[in-house]
Structures are given as structure tokens and as C-alpha cells.
Amino acid sequence: MKSIGQEAPLPALSSVRATAAPAKALAAPRASSRARRRRVLYVLPLAVFMVLMAGYPLEQLVRMSFSDVTIATLQHSWSFIGLQNYSNAFSSAVFSQAVVHTLVFVAVVFVIGMFGGLAAAIVLRGAGRFSGYLLALMVFVWSLPPVVNGSVWRFLMDQDGLLNAVSRGIGTGTLPFLYSPRGSVYAVALVNAWASVPFTTLVFRAALLGVDPGLIEAARVDGARKWQEIWFVLMPAISSTVFVLGVLEFVYAFRSFDFIYVMTDGGPGTATSTLPFLGYSEAFTQYQYGLGSAISVLAGLVILIIAVLYSRSVFKEETTG
Fold it and tell me: Is the pLDDT of residue 27 over 60?
């Protein structure tokens, strides 16, 4: 029995830790569960809105791709024909050409957009009046509607446009920028890439400004050259930005439609028809709605695969990081 006034002995530190550890272990899952519920509540309105606005059109698009739908049957019941539209698409020479044009278009826009934006961001990384003016000009170019951009470049590349006037002036003759069966897809892709460079430049520059200056100074003290500083210091520091921007640039290039529509309308012939444009052309020019829907679904599946790979990569990075 303890005497009056005698204090009870303090619990051992190990026992305090032993009782605190289970409490923390129980609190962590509860906090994580609450955070997940909050995220779901935040995302739920947007998810409902997207389902309401995009769910029904997508369902109609997929159903149309498995049906015989022409301008004569559009307002009537659609007869189910299974995979016939997809079979017709894969057996079409125009579809094969559109796949090649899409690969060329995406490659040109992606390479120029990424490398051009990174190079411009490195040059404009420092503060200065010239950098400010050039960045403001890039924002202006990026904010212009594609219809305006495409119309301006169409006039510039026309047979009687400014570029051909200069070409004739220096003795190289008239160049068929938008009228060559082989070169027109490159001309439109270059314009599309030119329009995407300001966006990639702004994103890359923001990422570069977030790199610790001490890392760059340490590399310079160790005698690193400029290319080594870029490759071994800056690029690893912005690798996550490069990945995200690469996905966005690929999707932007793949789904490009407006520049093709404004500058060449898919021509000459089908020389600049990519998969998204071919789906539009078959549905709203040839009135083969079933075939156009099938091509559009195939193009959408490519974007869906990229989106799934991107989300899995981001989820893996968040869980491991």
C-alpha cells in the first residue's frame, strides 16, 4: 500500500510507446479513408457532369459503329451489322493511308513541339526585357484560335502567298506547300507544331525555374559543360514534367483537326487526312455514318489507351513516391 502523498510511479517509456503505436496505426487508416471520401466528393460533380454530357453521345457513336447508318436511314431504326463497318475500314486503302498520315503528323508535331519548347524554355529561362516580350508574343500566338492561325498560314503558303512570293524572288520558283500529294501533310504538321511550341515553352520554363539553383552551381563548379548541365542536372529535375507534357503533346497532335480542316480540308485528295479527319469526312461528307463512327471509335481507343497508361503511371508514382 502506498502512503498518503506518495505519487504513483510514472509508466515506463516503452509502455507509453507500445500503447501509442496501435493508436497511430488505427488513426492512419481512418485519416486515409476520410481523405479518399473527400476526394470522391470533390470529383463527383465533375464526373456526373461528364457522364451526362458525354455518355449519351459516346453511346450513340459506339452503337452507330455497329449499325448500317446512312443519310436515308439516319432518322429511322438502325439495323445491326456487327463488325462490318470495322472490317470495311481495315480493308480500305484510304484508311491505311490515314494511319500513315496520322503517324507522320504526330511524329512531326511531337518532336518539334517537345524539343522546340524545351530549347526555347532553356534560352528564355533567365529574366530580362527581351524574354518578357518574347514570352508575351508566345502567349498571344498560343491564345489565337486554330481557325485564325490556320487561315493566316493558308494565305502565307498559297501559290500567290508571301512565302511563294519570296521563293520566286530568290529564284527557287513556286513551292506547292499545300498542294503536294506527299509534302502537304508535313506543311500542315509544321504549322500545328509551331502553334504548340508556345504552350510547351511556358510549361518547360515554369519547371526549369523550379530547379534548385544550387544544383546548377555545383555542376558548374565541377566543370560541367552546358550540354552536361542540361542533360545531367536539368532534365532529371524536370522528368515528371517531361512525361506529363509528352502525353499531352501526343494527344494534342493525334486529335488535331482544325488546322487540317482550315488549311487543306484533307487534300489534295486524301493527302492530309488523318484518322480523326477521315472519321469526320466519311460521316459528314460521304454520309457513311456507320463507317465514320467506326473510324472515330478506333481513333478514340488510341486516346483511351494513352489515358490508361498515363493514369497508371501517375498512380504508381504517387504510391511509390
Answer: no
Average pLDDT, the chain: 86
Residue 72 lies in a domain: no
Determine the structural domain holding residue 50 and report its residue range: 25-65
Q: What angle do CA 36, 39, 43 make, to 5 degrees?
A: 140
| pLDDT at position 38 | 81
Q: Report helix angle 56-65 to 289-320, nearest 10.
A: 130
How far is it, in rounded angstroms, from Cα 135 to Cα 98?
35
Rounded CA Rg of the chain: 29
Q: What angle do CA 308, 311, 314 make, to 5 degrees?
A: 150
What pLDDT sits at residue 222?
Answer: 86
Does residue 305 fall inside a structural domain?
A: yes
Asked whether the predicted pLDDT for residue 173 surpasses 60, the reply is: yes
Could you say which DSSP state residue 145 is in? -
Residue at 81 is within a domain: no
Q: What region, left, alpha or beta, does residue 144 occupy, with left being phi > 0 and alpha being psi -120 to 50 degrees? A: beta
